[in-house]
Amino acid sequence: MGTRRHVPPAYQGEILFGLGDLDEGFALWNLAAEQRSGWIPFLMCDSAWDPLRSDPRHVALVRRLGAEL
User: Fold this and answer.
1) pLDDT the model gives residue 39
2) Is the dihedral of CA 63, 60, 55, 11 positive or negative?
3) Beta-carbon count within 10 A of 17 CB
4) Are 25 and 13 within 8 A, CB to CB?
5) Is the torsion defined by CA of 55, 15, 62, 45 positive or negative?
6) Distance (Å, rounded) from C-alpha 61 to C-alpha 52?
7) What is the mean pLDDT of residues 45-66?
8) CB neighbours of residue 8 within 10 Å
């Protein structure tokens, strides 16, 4: 789909998380945060991301976003 139209970095990150590529997934989530993507509130409260909450990259991203909100 990305060859035909824009796929937001947040969604690309979600796909990569599902494929087990956490490094690239977090890189794309950080890019989405820099772009002020509308998904940010869901990162902090959506139970779908519970398995990632203990990852230091998730903790750092949530802290950074909380400080910016």
Assistant:
1) 82
2) positive
3) 19
4) yes
5) negative
6) 11
7) 89
8) 15
| In the block, residue with structure tokens 């991203």 | 61
Q: How many residues does the chain have?
A: 69
28 close to 16: Cβ distance less than 8 angstroms: yes
Owner of token pair 């690309």:
12
Predicted TM-score (pTM) of the model is 0.83
**Considering only CA atoms, which of 59, 1, 66, 11 is closest in space to residue 39?**
11
d(CA 9, CA 20): 16
HEC states along the chain?
CCCCCCCCHHHHHHHHHHCCCHHHHHHHHHHHHHCCCCCHHHHHHCHHHHHHCCCHHHHHHHHHHHHHC
How confident is the model at residue 69, as a pLDDT? 45
